Amino acid sequence: GDSLPKGVRPLGLEEGLAKARDDGWTGELVRSALEAAKAAGEASVWNNTQPMFRRVTQGEVRMLTRGTIKDDTIDTRGDDDMEVLNRSFYATLVASMLLSTWASIVIPNMDLPFFRGSDTRFFVTLAIGSSPFAFLGMGLSLPGLLQALLIQGRRIISNEFRDRLVRHEAGHFLVGYTLGVPIAEYKADDAILNACQFFEDGAFEGPARRLTHKQVDVLCAVSMAGVVAESIAYGKGLGGYADLSQLQGFLGRATPLLNDGEQQEKVRWGSVLAYTILRTHEEAFEALVECMERGDSVETCIRVIEAVGRDEKPN
């Protein structure tokens, strides 16, 4: 960072982040606070990795990631989301058939004034039987809402899915942090939106801005970090479709332009770089996962990364 005037002590990590929060928590403030803390010897993990791109084949990716990233490791087409939608639709269809049959049999025998009469039986049975069509209608008109409901349902019933969500976002957080991209905020229970939000400065400015190849290298690693983090823990990444869709937009803004083969090379190298960072800082990553599970502040997450990362030994 820039040298400070004589006699001026650089702010430490905790006080620097506190001041950045008090002053408005912008990308410039957070970056300045972290650079000052690094100068003071309190932020050794921040921006400690430089993306040194090199071309790798898929076989080399498998070798460099010790078999973690294979051809079928990452869901690039949203197959998992489609499988969940299909299962949910058929479950709704079967449930509606059973419930409508139950309603037609049971309601006439209920000794309640409201349920007496054929009209009530007809409308209740119709409402239950129409639920699959309501499901389809929501999927067509409000796909985001339907996906949100399905994700919340999976979070409730599946411990693995909850852990995947947190690890996915922790991967983005840690890899972005080590590559010098300041984090604005995060939400570890949302697989629809980009739940780990980075400040829109530098490489994250508006869509018309062109990107250098070095910026693209950083974005590839940050984008792939979530699904790589899942793959390390579970052998397969299910949350990569949205990340890859966003990354495709970044790749299209590269200057000079990248052809299809070069774009694939960038993505492959991004996977290797993300894997290397996550393995190098494995203890800090696990500590970050615990922080994000509790919903700790960004400042607390950063302090934990630095506290644990200081004592880590490279793998």
Mind telling me the C-alpha Rg? 24 Å
Poorly predicted segments: 1-9
User: Total number of β-strand segments?
Assistant: 2
**How helix-rich are the residues, as a percent range?**
55-70%
N-to-C SSE series? HHHHHHHHEEHHHHH
Query: How many individual helices?
Result: 13
* Widest sheet: strand ordering: 1-2
Describe this structure in words.
33% of the residues are buried. The protein has 315 residues and is mostly helical. A two-stranded antiparallel ribbon has the order 1-2. Helix 1 runs antiparallel to helix 2 and helix 9 runs antiparallel to helix 10. The chain is built from 13 helices and two strands, in the order ααααααααββααααα. The longest helix is centred in the N-terminal third of the chain and has 28 residues, at 79-106.
Outline:
By secondary structure, the chain is an all-alpha fold.
Topology, please?
Elements: H1 13-22, H2 27-39, H3 58-64, H4 79-106, H5 118-129, H6 131-141, H7 143-157, H8 159-178, E1 183-186, E2 196-198, H9 213-234, H10 240-251, H11 260-280, H12 282-294, H13 298-309
Antiparallel strand pairs: 1-2
Helix pairs in contact: 1-2, 4-5, 4-6, 6-7, 7-8, 8-9, 8-12, 9-10, 9-11, 12-13
